[in-house]
């Protein structure tokens, strides 16, 4: 059994408890066996000792809304149509590596990569964060996943869209995806910013379709549904249809906020995508100004209402892969969270959303050793997390997957 001991650490364990100074974390075969004060640490004479230099140790972070198949600012989504499908798999390698080296050890990809990519990472064929995948996104004809364009070309399948116009169609397509082993279903219950034929104010998948997807996901092993929902009508359909998470949620009102709290639903506000115009399509540029401003105005009320807020970014669309931890600064700036609350959102709460909080999300004995060593103290400068040079060491199940600090393990 290999034992590793991190010491001379300041521990933020993800539970929201006060930091522990002079902390020790002991790792045995990929799991945490001790996390606490050095005074109470067990004797481990044979452990590999790693002095982290007084820097901060946090849980591995989550990004609950990414699109690894999309290039962010590094290219155009249109380029996917210009290369063989096999070429696009190789593009994922750098995106996966960049993400995990930035301290994000678990991501939920909500359209664009399938279970094969998830399993390739799981089996060690390619390095990256742990993946939970939706593969496809459901919408109705003319909805957010419908990328028919006036020339007659149809990019719906290319981007990962599935068109369903009835409850029965939704059930059949959901069952096929669930048979393939996806971890979550994704539905668009409102229009979108990027999509060419609708608007976020428009209602997407109706409540009865959302509810049918929720029923199917639950029937197939208790899986959950995430809903793209920006405008009010789409948010209402998502909430009342019973989804696990509302993605974006910019037009939430107090009544729906209260209902989300009562239902135990999560909000993934994707704030860093609102810091720049969406240039993925000409339609997106015009729509993004209005909706991005609303995102900044509404998030604090959602936080104050007590909605469970998890961290997600829409990385690959507007933000670049690896920029996830800038979202924590946005939760503080726009949402009114404390830095500690933002860290909990990106760790413990996100793990709860992804149904992996029994093994991830906090630094506690018995959990997997997904850990990040951060330069300095993010509680005094939450934006420091967004600087990748400050992410000194990333462990995923006890193994180094990023080591800018040059630690000897």
TrEMBL record:
Domain of life: Bacteria
SUPFAM superfamilies, per the entry: Composite domain of metallo-dependent hydrolases, Metallo-dependent hydrolases
Pfam families: Amidohydro_1
Amidohydrolase-related domain residues: 56-401
UniProt xrefs under InterPro entries: Amidohydro-rel, Metal-dep_hydrolase_composite, Metal_Hydrolase, Metallo-dep_Hydrolase, OTAase-like
Keyword Ribosomal protein tagged: no
One annotated GO molecular function: hydrolase activity, acting on carbon-nitrogen (but not peptide) bonds
Keywords tagged on the record: Hydrolase
Protein name, per record: Imidazolonepropionase-like amidohydrolase
The species this protein was found in: Gordonia humi
Organism phylogeny: Bacteria, Bacillati, Actinomycetota, Actinomycetes, Mycobacteriales
């Amino acid at each position: 059994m290999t034992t590793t001991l991190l010491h001379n650490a300041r521990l933020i364990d993800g539970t929201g408890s006060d930091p522990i100074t002079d902390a020790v974390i002991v790792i045995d075969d990929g799991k945490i066996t001790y996390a606490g004060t050095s005074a109470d640490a067990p004797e481990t004479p044979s452990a590999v000792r790693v002095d982290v230099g007084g820097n901060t140790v946090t849980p591995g972070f989550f990004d609950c809304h990414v699109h690894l198949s999309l290039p962010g600012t590094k290219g155009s989504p249109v380029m996917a149509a210009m290369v063989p499908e096999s070429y696009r798999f190789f593009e994922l390698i750098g995106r996966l590596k960049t993400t995990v080296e930035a301290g994000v050890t678990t991501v939920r990809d909500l359209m664009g990569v399938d279970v094969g990519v998830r399993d390739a990472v799981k089996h060690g064929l390619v390095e990256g964060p742990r993946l939970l995948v939706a593969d496809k996104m459901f919408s109705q004809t003319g909805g957010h996943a419908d990328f028919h364009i006036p020339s007659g070309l149809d990019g719906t399948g290319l981007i990962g869209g599935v068109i369903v116009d009835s409850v029965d169609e939704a059930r059949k397509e959901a069952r096929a995806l669930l048979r393939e082993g996806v971890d979550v279903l994704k539905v668009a219950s409102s229009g979108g910013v990027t999509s060419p034929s609708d608007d976020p104010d428009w209602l997407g998948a109706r409540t009865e379709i959302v509810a049918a997807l929720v029923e199917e996901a639950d029937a197939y092993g208790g899986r959950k549904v995430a809903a793209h929902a920006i405008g009010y009508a789409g948010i209402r359909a998502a909430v009342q249809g019973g989804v696990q998470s509302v993605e974006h949620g910019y037009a939430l009102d107090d009544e729906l906020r209260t209902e989300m709290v009562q239902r135990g639903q999560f909000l993934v506000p994707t704030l860093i995508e609102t810091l720049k115009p969406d240039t993925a399509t000409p339609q997106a540029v015009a729509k993004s100004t209005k909706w991005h401003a609303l995102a900044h105005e509404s998030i604090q009320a959602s936080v104050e209402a007590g909605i469970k807020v998890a961290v997600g970014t829409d990385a690959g669309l507007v933000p670049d892969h690896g920029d996830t931890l800038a979202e924590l600064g946005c939760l503080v700036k726009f949402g009114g969270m404390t830095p500690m609350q933002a860290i909990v959102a990106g760790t413990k709460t996100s793990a709860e959303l992804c149904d992996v909080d029994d093994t991830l999300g906090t630094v506690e004995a018995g959990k997997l050793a997904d850990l990040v060593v951060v330069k300095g103290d993010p509680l005094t400068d939450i934006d420091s997390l967004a600087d990748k040079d400050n992410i000194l060491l990333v462990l995923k199940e006890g193994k180094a997957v990023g080591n800018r600090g040059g630690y000897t393990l």
